[in-house]
Structure formats: structure tokens, C-alpha cells
Amino acid sequence: MFKKKNQMKTREAASLTPRRRFLNMLWWLLGGLALAELIGLVIAFIKPGKAMQPLEGYGGLITCGQAADFPAGTVTAFQRGHFYLSRLENGGFLALSRKCTHLGCTVIWDEEKSRFECPCHASAFNLMGDVISKPAPRALDYYAVNIENSVVTVDTGKKMKRQRFSADQVTAI
Ligand code: FES
Predict the structure, then answer these.
(1) Shared domain check, 101 and 69
(2) Which of 97, 29, 171 is nearest to 37 (CA)?
């Protein structure tokens, strides 16, 4: 009886059509690939990756350049960082958010009038970001400025709110 069963199996295997054999092989191959991919994912998950580096862009540190490149009383836009770098008359630096404190429109620096203007509801701010024309309820937000070896960097990961300008917000050389 056992011998008879084995003979039947051998006959079944021999009777597989080439198409059926091909499909069986394909299934084994696809199963093997899926297993290899799963093992790769597990290894990638377990293995420690590279340490996170601070990004050079909005939300991270932005290198602005040499302090001497920014004359007193000027404003420089940093599109990538979404801020304006103000060099005050006393030589200090302030990095101002370009977002209006009324409803969040982007303020624009007007060189001739020497002030920031909001195109949405006409708020205006001075070089330090203080409100000079409402409806904006408070001064522009600002970011931490650091000066090391005369190189100015702004940390756009640290946005600070304020009611008005005060001297302690300024970074001096
Ligand atoms: S959003 Fe700037 S004044 Fe309204």
C-alpha cells in the first residue's frame, strides 16, 4: 500500500506540465525575494544609523556670512531660512521672522521707507521688528543669532515671540 502511494506521487510529479513547473519555480523565487527583503528591513531597523546632523536650512542653523559683509542700518533677506537679518545702527544683529504677527502674511522690506510692510492689511514694522503701524498686535518674532570668529549664524529652530523690541534681543560682536 505504501509503495502504491509513492508510485502515485511520482506519476503526479512526472505529469506536471512545463507551465505548472515554471509557475512553481516562479512562486519559490518570489517567496525568496520577499524573504530577503524582509531580512534586509529587519537588519536596517536593528542596525544603528548615522547620528542626526543639524540641517542647513529652515529649522536648523543658517550660516549668513562674515559680520563685516552686513553694513549698519541694512536688512538682508534669507529666503532659505525665512528670515531677515537686520544690522542695527549700533552694529548689533537681529534675525527677524518674515511672518506678520497679525495673520501670518510675509512681510516685505521696503528699502526706501526703511521699514517692513505687510501686503495683507498694511501693518508696518521698523528695523528692529517693532510695530509702527497696526493691526499687527506685537513685534516680529526673532531667532537666536550667534557670532563666532566673525561668522554670523542664525538658529531657525529657536523662534522667539515678544511684545516689543528690547536691547537684550540684539547680538553684538
Ligand atoms: S497679516 Fe499682516 S497685517 Fe494682517
Answers:
(1) yes
(2) 29
Shortest-distance Cα residue to atom 1 of ligand 1: 103
State the Cα–Cα distance between residues 46 and 71, nearest whole angstrom: 52
**For ligand 1, is residue 117 a contact (CB within 6 Å)?**
no
Check: pTM over 0.70? Answer yes or no: no
pLDDT tens series, the chain, 173 aa: 555 555 555 555 556 688 888 888 888 888 887 887 877 666 665 554 444 444 567 788 999 999 999 999 999 999 988 999 999 999 999 999 999 999 999 999 999 999 999 999 999 999 999 999 999 999 999 999 999 999 999 999 989 999 999 999 999 98
Residue 52 lies in a domain: no
Give the domain range for residue 122. 61-169
Tell whether 80 and 11 lie within a shared domain.
no
Copy the grid coordinates of residue 77. 533677506
Q: Indicate which atom in ligand 1 lies nearest the CA of residue 135.
A: 3
Of 156, 150, 160, which is closest to residue 62 (Cα–Cα)?
A: 156
Q: How many residues does the chain have?
A: 173
Question: How many domains does the chain contain in total?
Answer: 2
101 Cβ closer than 6 Å to some ligand 1 atom = no
